[in-house]
Amino acid sequence: METSSNKTEFDYLFKLLMIGDSGVGKSSLLLSFTSDSFEDLSPTIGVDFKVKYVNIGGKKLKLAIWDTAGQERFRTLTSSYYRGAQGIIMVYDVTRRDTFTALAEIWAKEIELYSTNQDCIKMLVGNKVDKESDRVVTKKEGINFARECGCLFIECSAKTRVNVQQCFEELVLKILDTPSLLAEGSRGVRKNIFKESVPQSDASTSSCC
Q: Which Gene Ontology cellular component terms are annotated (predicted)?
């Protein structure tokens, strides 16, 4: 996957959403993908947002990636951000079982409630595999849950950047392979998917999870 040098022209515009408990590393994953760097970031307040231009599958793409807060107090604020998302990334921490069990108890249900695209591609991501000695959720458990939910699955590390690019690339390739989402992405060039402007009081520019 290559970053496109010409940022004014793109074939498709896709909206991606990152969800999961606070502290699982959503913002660190996003930072690793968009700026090739790693930071331990403080929790996201409300919603953060980044844009990435890439060339994938021979197409020039503009990815609008929304990073939501994991805390329950922001749940009502972030529910509207599911609208129109072509891809949703569910993140858990392989060293914290509570973040894995929350996927079924909270996050999968939120997708059912709020996602407006029935063909939306879901990706399950087990983060922090660099802490292998602290792992409590096995890869097999992740694979099984992804199969139950009809999700793509990958394990990665925002810190070492293992599989971070692959995570986003696999998700986008699947979107490109889904005719209804592809059609929506081309229309997205003309429609404003940035209408969910991030209120300054509710968003942090450098934030985490």
A: plasma membrane
CA dist 81 and 110 (Å) reads: 11
33 domain residue, yes or no? yes
pLDDT category at 8 given cuts 50, 70, 90 is: low
Question: How much is the average pLDDT of 170-188?
Answer: 88
Residue 45, domain CATH? 3.40.50.300
The pair of three-digit structure tokens given for residue 133, joined into one six-digit string = 């000695």
End-to-end, the C-alpha distance of the chain in Å comes to 25
Q: Domains in the chain: how many in total?
A: 1
- Assess if residue 190 is contained within a domain: no
152-155, strands of its sheet edge to edge: 2-3, 47-56, 59-68, 12-19, 87-93, 121-127, 152-155
Q: What does the alpha-carbon distance between residue 198 and residue 194 come to, in Å, rounded to a whole number?
A: 9
Structural domain includes residue 193: no
42 vs 103, higher pLDDT: 103
What is the pTM assigned to this prediction?
A: 0.81
